[in-house]
Amino acid sequence: MKRILTQFDYINELSLTEIETLAGCITPIFVDTGQYIFHLSDPAESLYLLISGVVKMTYGNPRGDEAPIGFFQTGDIFGHLFLGKYRFRVGSAMALSSCHLGRLSEADFAMLVDQYPRIGMAFLRLMSDYQRETLARLHALMHVDARARLLGALLNFARHWCCNHGDWFQMPASLTQADIATIAGLNRTTASLLINELRRDGILGGRGRTLTINLPAVRNILESQGLEILE
C-alpha cells in the first residue's frame, strides 16, 4: 500500500513516515463492475482512494431521482463529504469496472491530521482543486453555448484519464453519450447531434460507442471563448 500511495497526487509529496502511517490506516476494498461503493443517504464516515478502476458518481434526492455528476479514475480521491456538517451521502458511487480502493475512516483521518498536519494540508489542497474545477464547470454551464459545454465536458474527462502525451485521446467505453450529455447539461439528442457534427469537423473521431478527442483542437476552441481549461 505504501508504494501505491506514492502514485496519488498530493500524497506523493508527503514524507516517507507520513505515507507509511497513512498506509497503515487504509483498508483495501475490491468492488466488481456494477456494484455500489456507497448509496444515497448512507452515513458519510469515510473517504476512498481509487487505486484502480472507474467510478461513476451520481447525485440524488429522497424521491430516488439520480443523475451523474462526475467520474473518478485511478489516482482520484472521493467521498470526503464527512469533513463538513452533512453526515449522510448526497449521492451514490458505482463501479463502472472492477475497482481496487482504499478506505480511510473519519476516525483515522482525524487521528492522522492531529499527528501529521501536513496530511491535513494535502487534503485541503485536494478539496481546493476540486472546488476550483467545480466552479469552472458551473461557469461553463451558465455562460457558454451547448457546443462549448460539450467540449468542456470531454476535455474534463480527458484531463482525468489521459496519459498527457499525444494529440488524440480515446474516451473509456464505460462512459455513455447519455452520461456525457448529463455532465454537459444537455439532452441526449443534442449531445449526439453535436458529437456527429464535431466528428465531421475533425475535432472528434471514432464511430458508434468509440469516441476520440483531438485535444489541441478542443483546447483552442475553448480558449478562444475564454473558457477556463484547468490544466
Overall geometry comes to globular
Give the strand order, joined by hyphens, for the main sheet: 1-8-3-6
CATH topology of the largest domain: Jelly Rolls
- Return Rg in Å: 18 Å
Mean pLDDT across all residues, rounded?
85
Tell me about the biggest sheet?
A: 4 strands, antiparallel
Low-confidence stretches: none
Compile the SSE list and pairings.
Layout: H1 2-5, H2 16-25, E1 27-31, E2 36-38, E3 46-52, E4 54-60, E5 66-73, E6 77-78, E7 91-95, E8 99-105, H3 106-115, H4 117-143, H5 146-161, E9 168-170, H6 177-183, H7 188-200, E10 204-205, E11 212-214, H8 215-224
Antiparallel strand pairs: 1-8, 2-7, 3-6, 3-8, 4-5, 4-7, 9-11, 10-11
Helix pairs in contact: 3-4, 5-8, 6-7
Question: Can you offer a commentary on this structure?
Answer:
- There is one protein chain.
- With 231 residues, the protein is of the alpha+beta class.
- The chain folds into two domains: 2-131, Sandwich (Jelly Rolls); 144-224, Jelly Rolls (Sandwich).
- Helices cover 42% and strands 23% of the residues.
- The protein contains eight helices and eleven strands.
- It has helices at residues 2-5, 16-25, 106-115, 117-143, 146-161, 177-183, 188-200, 215-224, and strands at residues 27-31, 36-38, 46-52, 54-60, 66-73, 77-78, 91-95, 99-105, 168-170, 204-205, 212-214.
- A four-stranded antiparallel beta sheet has the order 1-8-3-6. A four-stranded antiparallel beta sheet has the order 2-7-4-5.
- It is globular, with a radius of gyration of 18 Å.
- It starts with a helix and ends in a 7-residue tail after the last helix.
- The model has no long low-confidence stretch (mean pLDDT 85).
